[in-house]
Design a protein that fits this description.
The chain is α/β, with parallel strands linked by helices and 247 residues long. It has helices at 2-6, 19-35, 49-62, 64-79, 169-177, 200-210, 224-244, and strands at residues 88-97, 106-108, 113-122, 128-135, 159-162, 181-184. It holds the Pfam family DUF4096.
Amino acid sequence: MDEVARFLELADPPARPNARSARRVMAAVAWHLRTGGGWRALPDGFLPWRTVYGWFRRWVDKGLFAVLMRTLARRQRRCCGRRPTPRLAIIDTQSVKCIGVRGPRGYDAAKRVVGRKRVLMVDAEGHILAMTIVPANVQDCDTLSALDEGKPYWPSLRLGLFDSVFRAKRCEEWCNLHGMRRRVVEKDPDQKGFVVLERRWIVERTFGWLSHWGGLLRERAGRLDVATGRLICVACLMAANTLNNPA
């Protein structure tokens, strides 16, 4: 994980680990997120779980994974023959159940899920540009404000694609505030069965990629910032794997 080592200057200099230690920490974090095992269940051969979790929390607080995710997204776009700065964003949400931990959660009546809602913004290739987590009882059209922290890092975005639940006036106001045009992709009223909607399948595919990680099948973190950090860390690991192992 050379990419992680390059961004370790975000950590406190006196306590900064070397590249080898950073790789060992990331290996343990990757095991936790891939298998869904608890921090205390780290197998022999990994660093002590308190050390791993401590560095993970420090990197989340410093914003390491968010910076790394954006850097890898730009590199992925260049590898696809695109400009590093996207102009199209596709935004959607996903409700996920929560295990019995403390922290904010809610009930999504539409999905009948007690847990949290993931808000994802991807580009035309499905590369993750920004993401966050809110309680599941927050309406989809009210989740856009949760992206206010990640959207400014992509000032080149000019068009946002949404589904029909984002037709509210406040969604249009949010897009205008960030200099974007809004386009709602709706189903045909006469549609029967499953039909692939224009560009909408891209963000759904990205949600499908995330489902391969056992640690993300349920929300496990008590704090929303840690839950978001786990999700962003997975995005970094997926992007690094794609760049190191191109199809």
